[in-house]
Structures are given as C-alpha cells and as structure tokens.
Amino acid sequence: MANPAPPRIFSRRRRTAGLRRARVRQAHRNAARYILDDMVEDVLDRLEFVRMNPQRVLVIGDWTGTLALSLRGAGAQVEEEDVATLDEESPIVGAPYDLVVSLASLDRVNDLPGALLHIRNALAEGGMMIASFLGAGSLPNLRRAMLAAEPDRPAARMHPLVDNQAAAALLQRALFKRQVVDSRTLTVSFGSLDRLVSDLRDQGLGSALASAPPPLGKAALERAETAFRKTANTKGRVLESFEILTLTGWND
C-alpha cells in the first residue's frame, strides 16, 4: 500500500512570493537580515571547526549570497538554489555534493522527512549536510499576541515548528549515519509589534501557510499590540526570541 501524501500545511507559491517581496525590501538601507547573517556565520564557523574544505557545494535558501561568496573564495564550486528554483520535496539534480547547506528553508516544507532524505541522497560518500531553521522556541511573544488578538476563535496564523527531539528523530529517519542537533537563541529588541512583523517580512519569514487566514481587524490588532507590549522592559522594548535549530548529518 502506498504511503499517504503528507498534509499540505505550507504553500510553495506563498513562500516564493514572500521571497520575492523580501528581495525588494532588502533594497532599503535599514532592512533586517540578521537571521541569515547569523546562520551564515555559524556555518562558516562549523566548517572551520571540522576543517572541511568541500569541493562541490549546494547552498539552499541564502538569498544574501554571502555563504556562496565565502565558499568560492576558499576554492569551492558552489551552486545556489532557493524555493523559486528548487523543490526540496523532490530529488535533487546535480549530485553528488560534498556539502549541502540549507538556511531558513526546511521548516516550511510539507514533507520534511522526504526533503531530508533527498538531501542525504544528494551527498557524496562522506559528505555533510548543515540545515538551519527557526525552531519551536521561536517568537513566544508574537504567538501570545496572536492568541490574544482572537481570544474566542483564534485562526491558525503561526507556523508549526520543530523541536530538538523531533529533529534528531527526523535525521535518523532520513538514514544519516551520524547526526548532531543543537540550538541557540538569538534575542532581538523591538519597540512595537509592527516592527517585528516588518523584520519578518524583510527576511522572507512571513506566513506561508496554505490556508491563509483573513487579515486581523482594527480591534484585533489593538489587542495583539497590547498583549505584545505587556512583556516590555523598563525602556519600553520587547525582547523576542528566535531559536535557531541546526541539523548536521553525514553520509558515511
């Protein structure tokens, strides 16, 4: 009996549209990009630590181009893809790669186990995957604000996210022989809920849910802002958390 298709939680069309909008917004001098900047720096640190000098690399999701530029400077042949050019739920062409890096992308695919298996199949023997995305500990203040906005019948507005334990199980399911899962928290200060939402859109991290809920009305937005500001510090700033989950697996 064939395996049932995974539930359709995310829309690839909406993800692509969000990426295109983010690239337009990045033309503004003050556009946020701290999530990808942090992920790129972390990947470079990891490669230096394991003393890996890959020859063929596939980078998925880094629309800044920074990681590819650094790897090419070290002599690697790098291919760059994103949601607009690569369907992560399908086999990856161009393999094998010594290294596949996916940034801020795998948390918005419908078939995450399948996507991880496709990446493993694209690795050369001894090749390594590094995948970073937002984990389950992310955006607690925004989640509370969205629940407060619609206290009676809250619509699904926030993405379901993966935690460390589930990530480890996913790597095992994808048949990685060795795997490591770790996380870190990036804390960012915001003066308003609008600023947080703007930062998410700048970085292509807005909603990509397949069933888009209707926009919040004026009263709901006011309730959300009030709930968001309840956690403000003495300077009127809200400290929001982004948990960055990193999955590392080897095809040994």
Describe this protein's structure.
This is Class I SAM-dependent methyltransferase. InterPro entries: Malonyl-ACP_OMT, SAM-dependent_MTases_sf. It comes from Qipengyuania mesophila. GO terms for molecular function: methyltransferase activity. This protein has 252 residues and is α/β, with parallel strands linked by helices. The protein has a 6-stranded mixed β-sheet, with helices on both faces. The protein has one domain: 3-Layer(aba) Sandwich (Rossmann fold). The chain is 36% helix and 22% strand. The chain contains 8 helices and 6 strands. The longest helix is centred in the first third of the chain and has 17 residues, at 34-50. The protein is globular and about 55 Å long. It has helices at residues 12-25, 34-50, 66-73, 112-121, 140-149, 164-173, 193-202, 218-229, and strands at residues 56-60, 77-81, 97-103, 123-134, 178-190, 238-250.
